[in-house]
Design a protein that fits this description.
It is built from 10 helices and 2 strands; from the N terminus they run ααββαααααααα. It is mainly α. The chain has one domain. The protein has a two-stranded antiparallel sheet. It starts with 20 loop residues before the first helix and ends in a 9-residue tail after the last helix.
């Protein structure tokens, strides 16, 4: 008498579903946003610092700098530009060295995940936090300081392309400057002084035309000055254009300079970005 042993039934293999590039980018973006929100220091500094500065400076300075234009209105436009620079240039320039020093970038590089997904996640985070911060600043400014929102579609369009070009340029420059930091701790020391100096010379805290000529010329080499000037064209009266260094808001030049910095930032990213620290080789 022979006995037969029955083989266990095998389940058919379930085909794995490949995740598309868009879904990969969105997942990485959601991860970056979650990590940002879990860092209380980053949230407070990035979201709260511009609001605090507006409250302080508005309480100290309330004079008119031009007919129908108060210092507070002028300062608010500069702080909107500063907020966009903070969430992109400063935030990336500080956090990427931390991730590099902790070996996060090295592990990313060793996975099958395409390298562009990492940068897509950073871009999504910058856009999401940048939009939230801009809405917060506008809400505070309209509610407490009588800032007039753009009244025409043309001004909203100007606001859109100035913000997009400015954030793009600052994001690329933030990724590029992150390679200068040797360690996680040195990221802030490298980036923060640069951001502060640019704020002081770009017409954020002081009326731009009242700064020394050499300081105006240095500021004109960098994106923040042009972001501030473009946003003044959105939120301040057309008559204020005569108070600008060029005698007008020069929106054409604003677009050219910001677009040029997008190209410069991209070239710097492609040629300088490092996935590992110098001690890793």
């Amino acid at each position: 008498m022979t006995t037969t042993t029955s083989k266990p039934a095998t389940r058919p293999a379930v085909p794995t579903r490949r995740v598309g590039p868009v879904a990969l980018g969105l997942r990485q973006g959601r991860l970056e946003i979650t990590q940002f929100l879990r860092s209380r220091e980053s949230v407070v500094f990035t979201m709260g610092f511009p609001v605090i500065m507006i409250l302080i400076f508005a309480a100290i300075f309330n004079d008119e700098i031009a007919p129908g234009v108060s210092y507070t209105q002028y300062f608010i436009t500069g702080m909107i530009a500063t907020g966009l620079m903070t969430v992109s240039f400063q935030n990336l320039g500080i956090w990427i060295p931390i991730e590099r020093d902790r070996g996060v970038l090295k592990r990313y590089r060793g996975t099958p995940m395409p390298k562009w997904v990492y940068f897509a996640g950073k871009v999504i985070m910058v856009v999401a936090i940048g939009v939230a911060e801009t809405l917060l600043l506008l809400a505070v400014s309209v509610a407490f300081f009588d800032l007039d929102l753009p009244s025409t579609a043309g001004r909203w369009l100007t606001f859109g392309w100035v913000a997009v070009l400015g954030v793009t340029a600052c994001t690329l420059c933030g990724i590029a400057i992150s390679s200068l930091a040797r360690t996680a701790r040195s990221g802030s020391a490298v980036v923060t002084p640069v951001a502060l100096v640019l704020q002081f010379i770009s017409g954020v805290f002081f009326v731009f035309t009242e700064l020394p000529t050499w300081m105006q010329q240095v500021a004109a080499l960098f994106p923040l000055k042009w972001m501030c000037q473009g946003l003044r064209a959105v939120f301040l009266p057309d008559s204020f254009g005569a108070q600008e260094a060029g005698g007008s808001f020069e929106l054409g030049r604003v677009a050219v300079v910001l677009a040029a910095w997008c190209v410069i930032g991209l070239v710097l990213c492609l040629t300088t970005f490092r996935w590992t620290t110098r001690r890793d080789g």
